Amino acid sequence: MFTMRLEHATITAAVIRWARRPSHCTFEEPDDQGEPMPQYTTRFGSLLDYDKGGVEAIDDEPEHYAFSNMFEVAANAKAWEKVAVGKNQEYVLEVIRAEGTSEWRTAAHDETALVMDGAITVELVKLDHPDLPADKRGSVRIEGEPTGRAMGRIVAGRGHMALLPAGAAYRFRADEPGVILLQTIEGDDTIYRWAEIIQTG
Fold first, then answer.
1. Where residue 57 falls among pLDDT bands split at 50, 70, 90?
2. Which domains does the chain show, CATH number per domain?
3. Whose CA is closest to 140, among 162, 109, 163?
4. Which residues, in sequence order, are bridge partners of residue 178?
5. Is the pLDDT of residue 16 over 60?
6. pLDDT in tens, 144-160
């Protein structure tokens, strides 16, 4: 989940309830002063089991923030849609619902894919002719099969990050639904749904 100020870049004081499963706290062995020490167990969210969390504004209005839970965004997205959940100038964080096999894509700049849920296979091909202007932002769809040298594949599970190098073609495969957080530059296929994820109270 990500929080960002919609009106301007200044961040005001806010407390964020993170979108993970609630931590479980127990008290176990005492510390050297004889006080019991808390022991925490963190339960992370997934596509099928998450708590949204939220923003508790201290000196501001909640509607000034776009608050999104990546699992909720993915649960409401179509397979392989690239939904922006964070933005800093031209850079975006996109949530992708991984399900089945994606189309082939390429970008003129590096991208990184962080697997947040599930298991994802990434196939990579070094394109013979990338045919993208160096200043083209975001990834673009490749029609048909890419022409070039196979670079291999990456099998990534939850918490694994894959580099998608500039000038290479890539496609994702997920046998079961999963979630990818893609760090990239805003492109033609970036979808904005701020109105749907804004917190109103």
1. confident
2. 2-197 (2.60.120.10)
3. 109
4. 98
5. no
6. 999 999 999 999 999 99
Q: Which long-range contacts (CB under 8 A, 24 or more apart) does 6-11 make?
A: 6/64, 6/65, 6/66, 6/194, 6/198, 7/64
Residues 6+ apart with CB under 8 A from 135: 108
Alpha-carbon gap, residue 77 to 120, rounded angstroms: 17
d(CA 49, CA 92): 25
In the chain, the amino acid numbered 122 is V
Q: Which residues contact 96 (CB under 8 A, 6 or more apart)?
A: 74, 77, 80, 81, 82, 83, 172, 179, 180, 181, 182
More confident residue, 77 or 18: 77
The 10 Å Cβ neighbour count of residue 167 is: 16
| Residue range 70-81, pLDDT digits in tens | 898 999 999 999
pTM of the predicted structure, to 2 decimals = 0.76
pLDDT of residue 103: 97
